[in-house]
């Protein structure tokens, strides 16, 4: 009896998690997906079937998707309290999970939640968080997420009605929540001549420059068109996915509201570790960051994608498809560009290998120092035709579980990347 | 110091109906069929198995049994009504049919 693997998790707005045109939304979402998990409705019945499959009936709709992970807690006997993969969704109130447990009686029924990605909150303030993997190795970065809209001395003020984005950076050896001014500590992104560049807010009104590495979740108009940050975004729930594990996670978002984005295509962000080709003893911090690196003010007309290097990671064109990484150097150095290596920028749409029912290819990358660095975790190029109908689609190829996440590329192209979830 | 950088291609399904990769049936649960091939009551691996969709007679998969004569076909669903034809590659025995196979 084999238990399905539970290392990689994914969340979607389809689970009932919300992201609206309001401040505080990104931190609230990351707290849920990275740290606490999402509590599911109360359980009415639970039954162990043959081969370790467990059928759970909830008192109301669970909104879970096939192949998500579920954590059970407060059960007696305590060996039930564990993380499981959903291998069936028979009805809107039932799920089937995969375990290696023998048929036995359950003395006390506990609770279920969609499993978190296994991070903890290291530092916390009203508009900021620092997250880090639970039980980290020295390689695991401190992930700082800052939603502040004013500088410490209020000299820089970002109008709260403007586009909503978090300033996101990776750090090492953080000792407090604002520990980003020490030149000996690596950051991503990093400008050694301006250590606070990523979290600085200067100026007011439409001339305000807020931060550098920007994870947008609300901006005016559809994902591929142009607008200024100073234009008030429409209210409404955004389509998004959040996936990965404690080594690396990705966040894709439609940015315009789901009602004005009648398509479900999103833009990809991400951060954490990649699979480095250097040995463990190397001095490298194998970090990557997919983000919008912009130093423009709120009046600048920008697109959600197609705005210079790294603005639509893995899509659109050679430069736009890029992302960012740490430089391999004996000193703390500036961030450099990372270039993915794959057949084209139309993953899931070009059908280069449409003869296969699923053609999933790992994505290595090089950097601007012409170093071959390694490969991305969790995210794979799709060479077959993905035929996307939904924001995120569970896929089973023999015993390999995937979720295909629909993303934006050239106008009209239905693209997607594959999230490899493990073996059934 | 540097390991080779891989560029793996991940497992591909060999089911002849690619819609099954995302269609998990009316109860949204992937299912499979398992079984074994025997010749004169001994496990036999030199066989060819053809799994058909009984509703429209289309071929869904062609497989060989493993070293122990066993087979498993994953990525199916409970709406499917199948039959399996097993051929003896040594042509000593007539082909065998197993009808009314529902994945579980």
What string, H for helix and E for strand, traces the elements of chain B in order? EEEEEEEE
Task: Give the tally of β-strands of chain A.
Answer: 31
Range of strand content of chain A? 35-45%
The overall average pLDDT of chain B, rounded, is 94
Structural class of chain A: mainly beta
The overall pLDDT average of chain A reads: 93
Please list the strands of the largest sheet of chain B in the order they lie side by side.
5-4-7-8
**Over the alpha carbons, how many angstroms does the gyration radius of chain B reach?**
17 Å
Distance between the termini of chain A: 11 Å
Largest sheet composition of chain B: 4 strands, antiparallel
Helix content of chain A: under 10%
Q: Approximately how much helix is present in the residues of chain B?
A: under 10%
Shape of chain B: globular
Determine the number of helices of chain B (DSSP H or I, runs of at least 4 residues). Answer: 0
DSSP strand count of chain B? 8
Kindly estimate the percentage of residues of chain B that lie in beta strands according to DSSP.
35-45%
Largest interface comes to:
A-B, 40 and 25 residues
Shape field of chain A:
globular
The stretches of 5 or more residues of chain A where confidence is low (pLDDT under 50) are: none
SSE class of chain B: mainly beta
The quaternary structure here is heterodimer
């Amino acid at each position: 009896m084999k238990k399905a693997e539970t290392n990689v998790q994914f969340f979607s707005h389809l689970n009932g998690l919300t992201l609206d045109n309001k401040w505080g939304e990104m931190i609230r979402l990351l707290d849920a997906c990275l740290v606490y998990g999402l509590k599911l409705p109360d359980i009415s019945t639970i039954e162990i079937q043959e081969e370790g499959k467990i059928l759970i009936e909830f008192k109301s709709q669970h909104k879970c998707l096939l192949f998500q992970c579920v954590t059970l807690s407060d059960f007696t006997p305590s060996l039930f309290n564990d993380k499981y993969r959903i291998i069936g969704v028979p009805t809107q109130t039932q799920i089937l999970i995969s375990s290696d447990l023998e048929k036995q009686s359950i003395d006390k029924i506990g609770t279920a939640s969609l499993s978190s990605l296994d991070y903890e909150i290291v530092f916390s303030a009203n508009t900021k968080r620092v997250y880090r993997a639970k039980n980290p190795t020295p390689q695991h970065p401190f992930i700082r997420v800052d939603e502040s809209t004013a500088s410490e001395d209020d000299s820089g003020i970002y109008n709260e009605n403007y586009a909503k984005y978090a300033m996101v950076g990776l750090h090492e050896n953080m000792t407090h929540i604002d520990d980003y001014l020490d030149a000996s500590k690596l950051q991503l992104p990093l400008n050694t001549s301006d250590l606070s560049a990523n979290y600085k807010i200067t100026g007011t009104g439409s001339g305000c420059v807020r931060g550098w590495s920007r994870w947008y979740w609300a901006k005016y108009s559809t994902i591929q068109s142009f607008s200024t940050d100073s234009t008030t975004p429409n209210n409404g729930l955004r389509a998004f996915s959040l996936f990965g594990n404690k080594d690396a996670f990705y966040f894709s978002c439609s940015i315009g509201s789901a009602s004005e984005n009648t398509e479900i295509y999103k833009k990809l962000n991400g951060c954490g570790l990649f699979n480095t080709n250097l040995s463990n003893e190397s001095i490298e911090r194998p970090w990557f960051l997919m983000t919008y690196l912009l130093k423009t003010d709120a009046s600048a007309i920008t697109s959600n994608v197609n705005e210079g290097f790294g603005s639509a990671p893995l899509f659109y064109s050679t430069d736009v498809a890029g992302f960012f990484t740490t430089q391999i150097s004996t000193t703390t150095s500036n961030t450099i560009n990372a270039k993915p290596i794959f057949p084209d920028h139309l993953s899931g749409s070009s059908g280069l290998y449409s003869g296969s029912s699923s053609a999933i290819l790992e994505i290595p990358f090089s950097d601007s120092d012409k170093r071959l660095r390694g490969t991305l975790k969790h995210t794979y190029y799709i060479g077959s035709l993905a035929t996307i109908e939904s924001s995120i689609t569970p896929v089973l190829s023999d015993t390999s579980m995937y979720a295909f996440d629909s993303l934006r590329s050239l106008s009209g192209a239905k693209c997607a990347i594959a999230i490899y979830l493990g073996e059934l | 110091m540097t390991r080779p950088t891989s560029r793996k291609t991940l497992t591909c399904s060999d089911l002849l109906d690619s819609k099954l990769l995302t269609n998990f049936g009316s109860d949204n649960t992937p299912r499979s069929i398992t079984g074994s091939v025997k010749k004169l009551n001994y496990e036999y691996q030199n066989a060819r198995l053809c799994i058909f969709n009984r509703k429209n007679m289309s071929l869904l998969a062609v497989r060989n049994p493993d070293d122990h004569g066993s087979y498993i076909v994953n990525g199916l669903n409970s709406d499917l009504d199948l039959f399996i034809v097993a051929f003896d590659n040594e042509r000593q025995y007539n082909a065998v049919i197993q009808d009314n196979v529902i994945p579980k």
